[in-house]
Amino acid sequence: MTRLQGTNPNRTILVIGTLLAAVLIAVALFAVRGKPSGSGQTVNFNLSGQPVLGQEAAPVTMVVFEDFKCPNCKRFEDEFLPELKTKYIDTGKVKMVSMNFPFLAQNARLPTDDSKLAAQAVECAFLQSNDLNNSFKTVLFRGQGSESVVWATKSRLKELAGNVEGLDTAKFATCLDSDQTAAAVDADEKQAVDAKVAGTPAIYVNGKLVDSYATASVSAAIDAALKN
């Protein structure tokens, strides 16, 4: 998982070097970040109007938060999702809901928040259709650049959109240039922050955070949910 970074204002307390201070800092971090992965805490997300892969009536819901600049998200989509799709999504057992958590450009203090621009672009494709949303995601991850530089500019995103069969590129460009989907991306990000998502990809199965994005871990969580 690609994780959030930040400076803890209590870090200077570590100079005391006492066991008690270390415990207090751990408790403080726990309160700020929320419970760690695998804690069993259930989160209720508002999934209305979100892109979905799979059948709407599937008994298990898998929510995936991603940043399109995130190399681990690309790995999940390229290496792990195909097997999960074949085993669970295509068989009607799971529906996957995609949500945005664009934080990498802000973390790197880049001059342009291209994490958010990439998310807006995917949402612009989604306005045309759910299938085009999924197709554009594939193209976008294929064209992914370094997380430490600005690459998902509006001009580059329009170029990538030209590789998506069936996408109305004129409508897409108008949507992207007008920041039409910025509010939708902000709403996703707020849900991620409220849930104390610590990085991407963050995968929730029926509201419970999975401790790894690897196929085995996600499969185990899905199998457990199916039994319930």
TrEMBL record:
Keywords: Disulfide bond, Membrane, Oxidoreductase, Redox-active center, Signal, Transmembrane, Transmembrane helix. InterPro entries: Thioredoxin-like_fold, Thioredoxin-like_sf, Thioredoxin_domain. PANTHER family: DISULFIDE BOND FORMATION PROTEIN D, GLUTATHIONE S-TRANSFERASE KAPPA. Pfam families: Thioredoxin_4. PROSITE patterns: THIOREDOXIN_2. The chain crosses the membrane at residues 12-32. Gene3D superfamilies: Glutaredoxin (3.40.30.10). Residues 29-227 form the Thioredoxin domain. This is DsbA family protein. It comes from Deinococcus oregonensis. Belongs to the thioredoxin family. DsbA subfamily.
